[in-house]
Amino acid sequence: METKVWIIGSSSGIGLELVKLCLQSNHKVIASSRNAKKSEELLQLKSTYTNKLELLDIDVSSNESVTKCVEEAFTVFNDLDICFFNAGVYDSMPLEQWDISSFEAMINTNYLGAVRILKPLVSYLEKQKKESRVILNASLSSYFGLPYGGAYSASKAALVNLAQSIQPELLRKNIYLQIINHGFVKTRLTAKNNFDMPQLMQPEIAAKKIFEQFNKPYSFEISFPFILSKFLRLISLVPYKLSFSITKKFLK
């Protein structure tokens, strides 16, 4: 049986690398982003994997676009096995440089974008009457709010909290919901950072770690890299007096 995968947020970084891995493993793939049909990288892959790859444009900030695209996604290959939500917006800023529009963009894409997708997506997956998987790309920053990253980590923490809330309901529908909490990945988004990023990964490595989970026994959370994930988890568990004494050292 061929695995049918829908990757939302696939024009660059982890999403693009995951598209490549899926195609190389003979999966059927739907690649979506705002301008998927104009992406040179995706069009090049389409010319190689003509019958395995379909491109669908989606704007996760638009209810109309999401509703239309979800319907189309389920007609391309008749059904879906895995949906990976990878759409994301990122910015880092100190308090003095807060831009409310940046806050709104991150919440609207990183969190509400997933909410918009989930409602119609779950309805279609449930009708398939077979096991399926929904994967939400979150972040290790969801563990604890770090200096200058409050807007981004808040959107990812909200996404994780949402996933925790609906996981029991989805499991009853034979839909296995997973979250990916990963560290720093070298992309056009993290290129904005002007600070050291511990255990910075190439997108190919991060995508491979995610892809490897597709055929592994189900677990709700996938987190990596190991050292950074354990460090940030520890910060979230210790008393605030200690955790804040650590995070204030990140200030410039």
Automatic annotation (TrEMBL):
Membrane spanning residue stretches: none
Pfam families in the cross-refs: adh_short
InterPro entries reported for this sequence: NAD(P)-bd_dom_sf, Sc_DH/Rdtase_CS, SDR_fam
UniProt protein name: Short-chain dehydrogenase/reductase
GO molecular function, one term: oxidoreductase activity
Any one of the GO CC terms: cytosol
Superkingdom, natural source: Bacteria
Record keywords, A-Z: NADP, Oxidoreductase
Family: Belongs to the short-chain dehydrogenases/reductases (SDR) family.
